[in-house]
Amino acid sequence: MLWERKGQNAQDDQRLRAWLEQQYAAHGHPEKALKLARERFKALPAKATYDAVKAAALLPGQPDDPWPALRKELLATLKKRGDWTSLIEIHLAEGEVAEAIEALKKTEKKDPRNIGYVGTAYGGFGYTLGWGTHPQGWEARVAAAAEAEFPEEAIRIYQRLADRLIMARGRGNYQTATEYLERVKQILTGAERGDEWATLIAALRDRNKTLRALREELDKHALA
């Protein structure tokens, strides 16, 4: 059926390949499952198809441990395509925080507006700390992962997110900005750098002294 319909509809091709791949995996044909997974990644490089190749490559009975070499190949493909968002997701999922930070920096260079973007392009979503997969969640997820090992990067990202939200105006944005600022405060005070926090928050309040609603949110969270 796949052979007969191949090329007629790309989405159908992917669905059929995914189904057949699962059947091969379930019935002891790891090499065939991997072949189909690689075809799906080639047709649509992304984290989901990367994960499919990884799962197939790690199936019992797969000869020669193909995953290490395949992983390099897949990551190289995503880098060549400039798919930094997929790379961020992959590195975060695999606990590679430094690599996720570097991928995030690539997105910042490509389009500096993506940090802290607020508007209707994503259905009017604001930022929340319940990070999902929508684009505005990447930065906060990287910052959260970076807090322990790379606190300076976490602070930088949180500050940038907060600044963008404040620039966008609106109480909802201010409320979320204060959540990011709370994380900055916790990082700095936890590292006995309270003086830096005091300087930072004083400068932020001074820059935005005309924004009454923001002041109220900062006061509510004792950010002073």
Salient structural properties:
224 residues; 12 helices; 69% helix
Write structural notes for this entry.
- With 224 residues, this protein is mainly α.
- It folds into two domains: 81 residues; 105 residues, no CATH class.
- The chain has twelve helices and no strands.
- The longest helix has 20 residues.
- It is elongated and about 65 Å long.
- About 11% of the residues have low confidence.
Shape: elongated
DSSP helix fraction: 55-70%
First-residue to last-residue Cα separation: 66 Å
Structural class: mainly alpha
Largest sheet: none
Succession of helices and strands: HHHHHHHHHHHH
Strand content: under 5%
Average of pLDDT? 87
Number of domains: 2
Cα radius of gyration in angstroms = 22 Å
- The poorly predicted ranges are 112-135
Q: Please count the helical segments.
A: 12
Count of extended strands: 0
Could you state the oligomeric state of the chains shown? single chain
